[in-house]
Amino acid sequence: MISAPAAHAQDNVPPADTPAAKRVAPAEEASADAGGSHDIIVTGSRLSGGFSAPTPVSVVGAARLEQRGIANVADALNEVPAFRPSNTPASGELAPTGGYVGGRILDLRGLGAVRTLTLVDGKRFVPSTTQATVDTNMIPSILLQRAEVVTGGASAQYGSDAVAGVANLILDHRLEGVKGSLQNSVTKYGDNRTFVGGLAFGTRIGQSMHLVIGGEYESGAGIGDCQSRDFCRSEVLNFGRNPGYPGMPANNIMGSIRPSTVPFNGVTVPPGSAYTGRTFPALRPIDGITFANDGTPRRFVYGGMSNNLYMTGGEGQGQNIYFKDLFFNAPLERYALTGNLDWDVAPNLSASLMVNYGHLNAEYSATAYRNTAITIRADNPFIPRSADPTLDIPTLLAASGASSFQIGKGFAELGRAPIVTTNNVFRAVGSLKGKITEGVDWDAYYQFGRNDFRSETRNQTVSARMLRAIDAVMGPNGQPICRVNADPNPANHDPACVAYNPFGAQASQAAKDYVTADGYQTAITTEHVAAFNVRAKLFDLPGGTVQLASGIEYRNDSVRGDADPLSRSLAFFSGNGSRVSGKIEVVEGYAETELPIVRAAPFFNELSLNGAIRRTHYSRSSELLPSSSLSVTTYKYGAVWEPIPAIRLRATKSRDIRAPNVIELFGPTTLASGILTDPARGGQQVNPAITSGSNPNLQPERADTFTAGIVFKPSGGFLGRFRASIDYYEIKVRNAISTLGQQNIATRCFEGELRSCDLITRGPDGSITQVRDVLQNVNELINRGIDAELEYRQPLGTLGDVNFRLLATYVKDFITVDAVGPIQRAGQTGLRGGTPPGLPDLTLDGLVSWTKDDFTLNFHGRYINSGFYNAAFIGPDQAGYNIAAVNSSNTNKVPARAYLDVLAQYRIRHGDRHELTAFFGVDNLTNTMPPLNPGAHGTGNTILFSPFGQTFKVGMRLTY
């Protein structure tokens, strides 16, 4: 029958999450997983087992999930330092992938989820997102046997996307009986209540069939916006100096930073020139008037310093429209079902059928509407009057001779604009496996997958309608009407327009209904995969048998989708959808071989060589944009040298590729808004429109990867319980497909890169009004570092056993190179909207388990090293600091953070196969919060540092 690909653990530290009583030798473990008599396929290789793969493979077993009280495999893998948790329910709102929120999508090396290939039993899984990435929510973790992670390029073996590596989720095909789990968790603040339940069943059917069925359900209440946590209520943000004022750094990270131009009830604002050369604007009599809810004018309470976006202190505490309603953790509901039937048809022929179904429903919020410069004409009937002539706007206008003025406002009275996403995935895989002759076997499979995605936006602001509705005049019946309906030009009339009162919170419900609307975006992804593989044992060398694996594969990925008419015309303030149409057809062939040169000789206990090559042809087409085709070649070669049984040296070199996916080539163009510091205007902070989206001219990424490492696996005595591995890696991605980020574009334009300047639009006063940040083939990404893994087991006699496992990743370089030069983000642990995230230069993850009879106590620790906030900033303690420079910052430091989790479990046994385990744990025992630095949610980097706080979990597991 078809066996799940098994880990080649000979190169790896045996997983610490395997109980000591159940440990087996690597080959025995793999054979047991595969059913005993079947060939073992190495993750990262297409060859059968029995050799030493040169590629590093890290293993996270199902027991790790139990020791941590984790119900989803992605949450466990994201604790591995080589992963960056950039696509989780806690991070999706920052930059939702095609509107996909609530997913758990793997991102190796921080190179982006699109460069991590996620497999299930060695086969591709239908993409869950329009970015062709896989949501592990759709795979029930209760069926997981283990996850094997290839931390190096594997395109020659598996094709496109395996630039950073491969995560192979191996399911339990041999389950017999029933197992179930129930788990509840809640934070100390009473939010993020989460329930997860799973149930799986496996049985033999006669002598030749085995059936396994499993399902999982999760419901999470999520966490609210910035006001739900004290650290974010500190209002630590970046305050930018005003143009022409040299007496302070260009960037100032400090607390109590509040909006100066977009309070909820509105404020009259000065022109941009009022800020030049000052820490506080030169206010005219008409400037700085705000309004009570009923529109009554009063003086706005400014802070000590003010620019055209923010001020230090002042009124409006907790009322920041820029971060209003952006969830820290998305509420979600999901369920996933998987069934697998293995059938031994004949002695040399077996078949398998797997069916998957998954559903995810999640919610987040559209960006709240705000405008820093709304022109109000003198005849607007909504202008409130005041008995105080210094607050009476008509009096002030008459005195100045002006016919209009401007207000800024955050339109909180419109209420939240929820975006509800629904995703349904179906996948079916039929496989055959057989033997041609002794030493020659084959396998083939066909896979069909379909993913249906729908995003529905409610109460979203239509920008043009808002401006029409605010521009009001008195109508002939004595009631305010929209100016467009009062002028003599019938061509611009809008009979539906209802005049909107922007002063205070007085807008009528009819006006709110006019300026808001609902929208939607759909995307249907289908995938067809057909593959045929042959493996043969050719001849013998002194070190063993030479093997050859080869095969061909056809893949067809298509996406089509639609959006509402308003979205298609980019009418909404943010979150516009678009029509989507595109298809990529792939035909490829590969070959891989292993040459065992020598074995069991002095200083050459083993010496072997490995090599693979793949040729791929892409055909790319769309109903909306031009089509194209191209071909690429990838390869990999490596070597293993084991001078003595206790030491193994390994190295690989590979050429990997990632072809642009359908959405990157043919997807929508969307409009949003963002904040940036404009170095060309002395560090002025602005809030321009950001255009982002696809590019049909993208070319494949090309990556060159090198890894080299050493494995220590001594035997006997004290050292026999010790395992360790250290691996160096270097990944260079050329023609990397990415957005640059609006801040990057502004900075690079200032530094002289003309291509970046072409992406910027400036207004009449020279300020940035729009940035075009579409996908591009940027010059190069470079990632270098070291992975280390250490394990030790210590028996304590009658006191039980202690198991220890430490994972560490040191990132030496995480560099983006463009025409101006390199940007180093290794050590960047801050996160600013519009700026690519970085990586900690050092991350440690340790697990210590003490087992005594049926009781286990687990301690889990995680450490993230201190770093810097922004690669574009220079703080006083950094080389090159100049207070007058546009990249100067009063600080650029981010302190380290350490987290401690504890979980206790007690097992009640009944017979050999019946078992009930109860557990209780506390994550983040010390209630450690993110460092106080600006973040995309307000304050704090919630990708690297958990915003949850202390979390309690309780549950039980049953096997029968």
- The chain-level structural class is mainly beta
Number of helices: 12
Radius of gyration (Å): 30 Å
Q: What is the 3D shape?
A: elongated
Total beta strands? 49
Tell me what portion of residues adopts beta-strand conformation.
over 45%
Give me the oligomer status.
Answer: single chain
Head-to-tail CA distance between termini? 25 Å
Share of residues in helices: under 10%
Low-confidence stretches: 1-42
- Report mean pLDDT, rounded to a whole number: 89
Major beta sheet summary: 22 strands, antiparallel, barrel
Describe the overall structure.
- The protein has 960 residues and is mainly beta.
- Helix content is 8%, strand content 46%.
- The chain has 12 helices and 49 strands.
- The strands form 11 sheets. It has a 22-stranded antiparallel beta barrel.
- Strand 36 (760-762) and strand 37 (768-772) form a beta hairpin.
- The longest helix has 9 residues, at 26-34.
List the helices and strands and how they pair.
Layout: H1 26-34, E1 57-61, H2 62-68, H3 73-77, E2 116-120, E3 123-124, E4 144-150, H4 155-158, E5 165-171, E6 177-187, E7 194-205, E8 209-220, H5 230-233, E9 237-240, E10 251-254, E11 257-259, E12 267-268, E13 289-291, E14 297-299, E15 310-312, E16 332-346, E17 349-365, E18 370-377, H6 393-400, E19 404-410, E20 418-437, E21 440-461, H7 463-470, E22 472-474, E23 480-482, H8 509-515, E24 516-541, E25 544-561, H9 565-568, E26 580-601, E27 604-621, E28 628-644, E29 647-658, H10 662-666, E30 669-673, E31 676-678, E32 684-686, E33 689-693, E34 701-712, E35 722-738, H11 742-750, H12 754-757, E36 760-762, E37 768-772, E38 776-795, E39 801-817, E40 822-824, E41 842-852, E42 855-864, E43 867-868, E44 893-894, E45 897-910, E46 914-923, E47 934-935, E48 938-939, E49 951-959
Parallel strand pairs: 2-5, 33-37
Antiparallel strand pairs: 1-4, 2-3, 4-5, 6-7, 6-49, 7-8, 8-16, 9-10, 11-15, 12-19, 13-14, 16-17, 17-20, 18-19, 20-21, 21-24, 22-23, 24-25, 25-26, 26-27, 27-28, 28-29, 29-34, 30-33, 31-32, 34-35, 35-38, 36-37, 38-39, 39-40, 39-41, 41-42, 42-45, 43-44, 45-46, 46-49, 47-48
